Structure formats: structure tokens, C-alpha cells
Amino acid sequence: MKPLVNVLLWDLGLSILPYFLFRLAGCSETTSLIGGTAVASVRLAYVIIRHRRIDGLALFMIGLLVVGLALTAVTGDVRLLAAKDSLNTAFVGVAFLVTIPFGRPVMFLISRHFRAADPAAQRRWDELWVAEPGFRRMFYVGSTVWGAAMLAEAVLRIVLVYLWPIDLVIAVSTPAQLGLIALLACWSLWYRHRPRNGQWSARLRTPTAFRTETLR
What keywords tag this UniProt record (predicted)? Predict the structure, then answer.
């Protein structure tokens, strides 16, 4: 969970600082938002080059950046560009929720990606997933809570984009996102270490004797 939170904090921090630096330099709202978007694009390019691969999420974020800039250029509506980050959050929230009924939810996939460092560890995760309903329930609940909270927060911010002045929206938006992520991270730590869930961390560190023919 910590690596995921770090990624989100980086993205959110870089979304607000360039905007107000441009505003302090005397730039308009539109120019400042475009400048902030350009900084986000540079960071995204750096991440892609560093890891030498591009995945579906990176392509989606590139698409949002391009679409946001294009819509702003065509319509002249700076609020469309201001709502871009809310769309990112909404997409993540929907991804958490829609994967729950279809096999393995996003929370499980993210946790396994960051916490299972080798094929043997990944097999232990898969074996526990197949064999233990309680282990599956932990990730179903986690995905539901994160998905619902992020989607609700994104919808609220999109509404505020069209009700409040742009400078106020930008100033409030990022602290609200950071606060939500902090609350969700604290909740996840508490939930993961509840008595009924605390056993799974120990079992993931120990080779299991499960025999499974088919993985869900």
C-alpha cells in the first residue's frame, strides 16, 4: 500500500504547485493549467522512460492529458481542464469497483504487485486467494471502500469545478485528495491488522502446502 500512496502523493503534489507558480508569475488561469499539465506530462514521460515500458494506465493518463488540452483549445472552457484530475480519480475509483465481481479486484492485484517480489511469493498469494475465503474478503472490502470513496470524492470535485472560482478549486482540490488518501491509507492499515486479517501477512511470508488445480 505504501508504494501506491507514494505514487498518488507525487502525482497530486505536482498537479497544484506548477499552477500557482504560473499564477504568481502573472499567467492566466488557462495558461497556468496548461503549464501544470505540461509538468505532469514531463513526469509521466520520465516514469515511462525510467521503467522502459508503457502500460494501460499510462496510456489512459496520456489520453486524458491530450483530450483535456484539446477540449480546452476548442471550447475555450478552462473548467474542462480543471476537471481532468477529477476524471483520473473517478477512473481509479471505478476500476476498484468494477473488478470486484470479476475474479480478482484491483486491490489484490496492486498489493500482490508491490508485496510479492518473486514468483514463489506470487504463488503463495494465488494459493491463499483460491483456498481462503477470508483472504478474498479482505480485498473485496478494501476495493469497495477505496473505490466508493474515490468515486464520490471525484464527483463532488467535478461539481465544485463548475460552482467555485478556478483558483479556489485548485487550492482546495489537492488538499482534499491528500486528506482522502491519508484517511484511506490509515483505514487500510487498521483493517489489514485486525485480528481476523492479521494472520494473512504471516502466512504470505511462509511457503504454503496448498494444492490447487485451477486459479480463479
Answer: Membrane, Transmembrane, Transmembrane helix
